[in-house]
Amino acid sequence: KEKTLGMIKPDALDRMGMILDMISHKGLLVTKAKMVLLSRAEAAQFYMEHQSKPFFNGLLDYVTSGPVVAMEIMGGNAIGVWREMIGPTNPSDARSQNSQSLRAKYGTDNTRNAVHGSDSKESATREAEFFFPSAGPS
Ligand code: ATP
């Protein structure tokens, strides 16, 4: 079975129950979860591929504005299924494509888009290791 890393961002924390329900309805399993308030340095490490982007500082402000819930999600084609459930980066694109996606339902704008999902096996491994280091209790 494939694993991916999902994250409920601060603006969608109050939707956690509905998001977990949706994950199980899709036949995926949450195999690890944790709620954390990321420091700015931790958020910068998580999003290091975006460090030169103009939206980087705003992204760090946003993901450190409150706790996030990181989840290891497991199942057949978990990366693709979760990305499909999330929808496109921009919630207004999401709303015009499929009003049932998480970003369509709970996202606000390009930055405040409610959820994150790994985009490849490599990023899933890196991001899962970031939140659930194999050396520590996890
Ligand atoms: P992917 O690009 O792999 O589809 P994603 O949809 O999460 O993933 P990324 O491009 O990885 O989007 O960007 C990471 C996060 O940075 C986004 O989820 C969003 O919160 C923020 N972001 C992305 N693009 C912009 C933008 N143009 N303006 C403001 N914030 C952005």
In short:
This protein has helices spanning 16-25, 40-46, 56-63, 78-86, 91-97, 102-106, 121-131, and strands at residues 2-8, 29-36, 68-75, 115-117.
Q: Can you offer a commentary on this structure?
A:
The protein has 138 residues and is of the alpha+beta class. The protein has helices at residues 16-25, 40-46, 56-63, 78-86, 91-97, 102-106, 121-131; strands spanning 2-8, 29-36, 68-75, 115-117. It has one domain (2-131): Alpha-Beta Plaits, CATH 3.30.70.141. The protein is 41% helix and 19% strand. It has a four-stranded antiparallel β-sheet, sandwiched between helices. The radius of gyration is 14 Å and the shape is globular. Residues 50, 55, 59, 89, 110-111, 113, 116, 119 line the site of adenosine-5'-triphosphate.
